[in-house]
Design goal:
It contains eleven helices and eleven strands. By secondary structure, it is an alpha/beta fold. The chain folds into two domains: 202 residues, Spore Coat Polysaccharide Biosynthesis Protein SpsA, Chain A (Alpha-Beta Complex); 75 residues, no CATH class. The protein has a six-stranded mixed β-sheet with strand order 3-2-1-4-7-6, sandwiched between helices. The longest helix is centred in the first third of the chain and has 39 residues. It is globular and about 120 Å long. Bound molecules: 2-acetamido-2-deoxy-beta-D-glucopyranose. This is Glycosyltransferase family 8 protein.
Length: 394
Amino acid sequence: MGRLLLTSGQVSVVLSASIVFLFTFALFLSGYVLQQRTVHSLQAAIKPRLPKPLPVAKPIQPPTLDVKWARPMGGRPAVDESIDQMIAGQTLDWSRLGYGQVVREHVELCSAVMLLADLHKMKSPAKKLLLFPKSWLKETTEDEWDPQMTTARRLLRTAVRRYGVTLIPLETIVDEVDESLPSSYSLASLYSLTNYERIIYLQGPGVLLDASALDSLLAFSKSEPMAAFPATPERKDLSTSLFLIHPSMDTFRELKELRASRPMSDLDLFRKTFTPPESLISEWSLTMGNVVYKSQNLRNAIDGFNATVFQQATTYVQLSDPELPGPEYEVPYYERVALHPRNDEAREAWKNLYEGFRQRRMEVCGLDLETWTKPVLLSGSAVETRDGEQAAEL
Ligand SMILES: *[C@@H]1O[C@H](CO)[C@@H](O)[C@H](O)[C@H]1NC(C)=O
């Protein structure tokens, strides 16, 4: 049997060769690991986490659009060369893009005008559309003078003159129903506005923090029948907090027919017509911050919550706390205090949102908060919230 015999000199040569090899390999490995780390941190740095800070009083000619949002919604971002041209401001026809507010009853009017006024203040180049019951235009005689109607007409005039709003009188969604009932009107009417390519609806009342993020969503999204903000992070259902639609007579007719078959909330109507996840805003578009944030979630803020960062990362805050009737109503101080978030920063943010809303309401509408009387509910009865969902018993 042949054995390989090595002299001590040969052994040391082999040994030092292996050591050199081992060191080289170790060096290569550490270099590789380092490189991978760099790639990861680069990827992390490139991945946009937060929308850019508020565009403070910047002139928007041509519109300052946030390129981070320049992706179609509803699917994976696809490369679209026309986007470059759009960013250059050439092919984008802002007169065919709009924000639509739908008002069904008097108490909603001021909040709708406030949102459109915020868009105006933040210099959104898109159209601002206000849909309201056509019956509000009926001539009334002197002796039927109605203070609510007087306020409504004043606010509609203000919206047009001060904030460049386009008024659109609404027909009832189903023919031959009581036109004085809020439930006779529907968000589905937005689909009949076929002069517009895309419309964003925001559910009020709320506070808009960053119009440019929404402008970009409006400008760069693909036209699809429905792209709604998801009701939950699990993306199982759509919500009506915010949605982007492509108006079309076909969709309008379909919704109108379904609604005529039996009474239902707009949320149900949309959920029966559009299916998740195709009808939801893409996850990709939502990774960039809080597109819609509900004020009640500030109560879950954890240590380290930073109000400045929150403000910068949030596009729209819906003022919705289930125990409160809405920010338009005066609620006794002790009842509000009971709802304050425990976290100091979150509490300040929460208070500022509600207080800011109150001030802006006076500024835009010249209105004080409404007085609120707690509804007397029979035990076991439930109330329908603005979302059209059954709220917990009060
Ligand atoms: C919140 O974040 C901002 C910006 O990152 C920072 O300047 C500020 O100090 C933070 N505030 C607190 C209370 O940590």
